Amino acid sequence: MGKEPELEPWLKDGREWLKKGKSHIQGAFLHPWEFIVSCLWALLSWNTLLILILCVFAYKTGEWITANENSKLTEANHTLEKNLTSLDGQLKEVKQDRDKYQMMLAPFQAMAVKLYTNTPVEDRLNLFSSQMFNISSNLSFEMERERPKFIIYVNDKLITNNSTISLEDTRELFITVKNLSPISASGLSVDFSIPVGISATNLLFGADWHQEPPTTDTIDNVITTNIIFYHWEWMAARVVAPYGGFQVSSIKFLTNTTYIATYAIIEVYAEHSEREILEITIKLK
User: What digits encode the pLDDT tens for the residues 148-161?
Assistant: First the structure.
């Protein structure tokens, strides 16, 4: 017999596949139950493998999710512990403050209980506090009434802060201080200051005025030698009666003053009084 011709590879594979298929078909007819069992077993094996893969994947995914959630819970627990520690410290401080104020309040509570025996217990402290406030207000009012208060006139005209005074005709300045309080004013003093632009020799002061050391500048909380104001002081020789007035010695601007106007500060004060400070403009021409 002659030699069979060489087949193409794909023909060989096809022939082998047909032979196996033929063998399986013959087996199915010859041994049908064994064929069915082998098919079920093969199908079950692939499904089992797939299920196992899915189970492993689900387990690992759940494990990763659990670990992530545990990490978040741990972090949240740490934050909560810190907040609780902080709140615990704040609560202790509040309790300490409460105890301190309760100790401070205790004498007043005891006094209120003794004073207002016919008042409900819960209202006694409020009533005591209200009466103490009224007493304090009345005392403050009486103390304020007993402090001398002043108003200031220049050349018979009432002045306030930032007033403008004209001395074009007389060039002379008369200050009158009036006591508005029902008590006498002891140690009445008047200060007069002008900037260094006008020389001290350009002014002529009446009796009882005394030149004081000039006012110097302050830079960075340090007193310097830079003079910014010339300063004079006048003091009353006697007590100013209640609602009484007192005329201060005159101040005259000499004709050698070349300025058209100048800035000045007048300060008035006495024992136990507040200091009245007025900044004014004086027109000279």
Answer: 999 999 999 999 99
